[in-house]
Amino acid sequence: MNQLSVEQIKGVGPKLAETLEQINIHTVEDLLYYFPNRYDHYEQKPLHELIHNEKVTIVGEVLQEPMVTFYGRKKSRLTVNIRVDGAVVKGVMFNRPFAKKHFVAGDTISVNGKWDQHRLQITIDQYKKGSMNADNPISPIYSSKGDIKNAQFQKIIKQTIQDYQEEISEFMPAPFLTKYKLPDRVTGFSEMHFPSSFQQLKHAKRRFIYEELLLFQIKMQLYRKRNREATEGNAQVINMEQVKQLIQQFPFTLTEAQKKSLTDIFQDLHSPYRMNRLLQGDVGSGKTAVAVISLYGTVTAGKQVAFMVPTEILAEQHEASLKELLPKEVTIHRLTGSIKGKKRQQILSEVEDGSCQVVIGTHALIQDDVHFRDLAYVIIDEQHRFGVHQRNTLREKGILADMLYMTATPIPRTLSITAFGDMDVSKIDEMPKGRKPVETYWVKQNMFERTVNFIYKEIKKGSQAYIICPLIEESDKLDIQNALDLFAQLQEVLQGKATVGLMHGRLSTEEKEQVMLDFASNNVQILVSTTVVEVGVNVPNATVMMIQDADRFGLSQLHQLRGRVGRGDKQSYCILVADPKGETGKERMRIMTETTDGFELAERDLELRGPGDLFGVKQSGLPEFKLADLVHDYRALETARTDAIELVEHQFWKDPDYQDLFNYLQKELDLDKQTLA
Question: What is the mean pLDDT of residues 620-649?
Answer without folding.
Answer: 80
